[in-house]
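Duplicate of #3305? Posting structure anyway:
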């Protein structure tokens, strides 16, 4: 699964970052939290994504987007 970020939104002065992917999936990032609790993954229906392979692909898309647009952590 190759995912690409279609839009991003910053809330709470950057404490909550919402990335929408091309397939309608959503990744919510909390930059101040450590490790696994930093990201929340949802599919296009709003259900939590549990499969690790899908989560890794979504996280890679977000990291690629951040690197491409030079988003500071």
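Output from current build:
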């Amino acid at each position: 699964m190759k995912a690409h970020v279609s839009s991003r939104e910053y809330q709470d002065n950057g404490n909550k970052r919402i990335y929408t992917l091309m397939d309608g999936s959503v990744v919510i990032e909390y930059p101040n939290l450590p490790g696994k609790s930093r990201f929340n993954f949802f599919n296009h229906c709003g259900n939590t994504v549990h499969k690790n392979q899908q989560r890794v692909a979504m996280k890679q898309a977000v990291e690629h987007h951040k690197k491409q647009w030079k988003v500071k952590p």
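Confirmed duplicate; merging threads. The two ends are 25 Å apart (CA to CA). The chain has one domain: 5-68.
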